[in-house]
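Help! Submission page says 'invalid entity' but I think these are all valid:
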Amino acid sequence: MLIIGELINGMYPEIAKAILVKDKKAIQDVAKEQLFCGAGALDINCGPASKNPLVDMRWLVETVQEATDKPLCLDASKPEVISEGLKAAKNKTIINSTTADNSKLDILVPLAKKYESKLIGIAINEKGIPQNTDQRVQLAADIINYCQEYGFPIEDLYLDPILLPINVAQEQLGDILKSIREFKILSDPSPKTVIGLSNISQGAALSKRSLINRTFLIMAVACGLDSVILNPKDNELVDALITTELILNKNIYCDSYLEAFRKK
Amino acid sequence: METQLTLEKWPGMISTVTIGAKKDEGGSRLNSIEIGGQKSLPLLFQEGQLPNKPRIAYEIWDIPPVDWGNQLESAYGKSINNPLAWAEQCVKEFKAEILCLKLQSIHPDFGNKGPQEAAEFVGQLLKTVGVPLIITGCDDNDKDNLVIPQVSEAVKKEKCLIGLAVQDNYKTLTASVLADGHSIIAQSPIDINIAKQLNILISDMGLSFERIVIDPTIGALGYGLEYAYSIMERARLAALSGDKTLACPFICFVGQETWKTKEAQAEINQGIAWEAITATSLIQSGADLLVMRHPKAIEKVNNFIKKLYKE
């Protein structure tokens, strides 16, 4: 299970401030804390309010890779910002993300291939958010077909079924779980799967967010989820993830199994 | 028709443990050995590096052995009655490259010797033989806790392998091993979950995984061999998949388990075969150190290893 730490995001005031004043240490501390808690990769996002995303993305990538050689997940809606991050990166990268639109795929798949980056493909297009499993599967298939034709390795493709908030699209959550299973049988070799976990509890009661997040994560892992973008500092969340993997026989049990995971 | 093997690329590897310190490292051993370091499952040479072959340790005691049986003892002759002569014979005549000393004299029922005497004996053993040493207690926790620290100190510079730490009694031994630069044998009762837990408890005290050797507690052929085999297999798969807490070399006390069987005691050649087959089976599940008794069984297993490792 690849844990991608989500905390280096300009939408958080402290991160936005650090980017503004170029406080390297603040960013590197957040990077190190997430890695310590079990993150295997770090999401890098300048945030929606960034005035200069090209500069900010470059600065963030350079700053974080001073502190770690773990993969960087370059998170931006504009392909040129992702491209800037790829140019600056020495570490391995994950492109976050493309949609199923050719306008995005035409740019991001070649970039992923050129920089030997992994690629997150979200099951959505210009027509809007999918409403059920079939629509999600169709969009995922479109992304897979494009990658296959372009010669991009499917094992490096991470498909995201688009997780929606529980207080907005509660009726879709079952379908989203189903989609995780169905994505994996779309091709051989299988694509991988990913979700942005915090989306599910966005807008929900603050005191319930952690519980909602970890319950969905457990269900998603049981459906075959390969990786997840989440807050690694939520100890209960990471503990639930470790325990789920244990139940699925991914690791060997011992009484101190939570500690053992963190010793890995 | 050649079988096509499916070869994996494993992210993990087994740690390498060194036993024996030569002069340039502050010890007095004439040789040192390395075990572990594998990047693949046992004997899958095509798949990944297997840098260190399995090694056999001759088992000796600090008193003449009890319940070994005449037939087994006769392989050594008279020297078995004098522990230092016995040790010397193992090295000089049988070319042992490592010895495993059982401090049975300290057991309350077998002499009840104290820490001072045990330390003195070990000091003399160091002068008698130049091979690396494995040293185990008498399996009485309280007595071992009393004696082993002083023994560990007596062999301080020699990078020995010292045992046996168990889940309910590991702290004293770990502290000594840590302080005196040795490695530790962590024993679990045919239970992979306890093996993992014990390794974590020991490493929490500051001893690295490069200084831990796992004793899964083997059974002889016909007496539970397959249980330890399965555990060793599972542990290796987990270790190669990235679980550092199980990525340690294995030690198997083959001689002690085999020679208590009625099959081994029935007839000497059957006993030799029983010991050899138990050993060779466990090599296939990842045994790195085999503690054995009969020189002929040891010879057979050494030939087996030579052939496999194409030496």
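Support: the input was valid. A stray whitespace character was the problem, and the output above is from the cleaned input. The mean pLDDT of chain B is 96.
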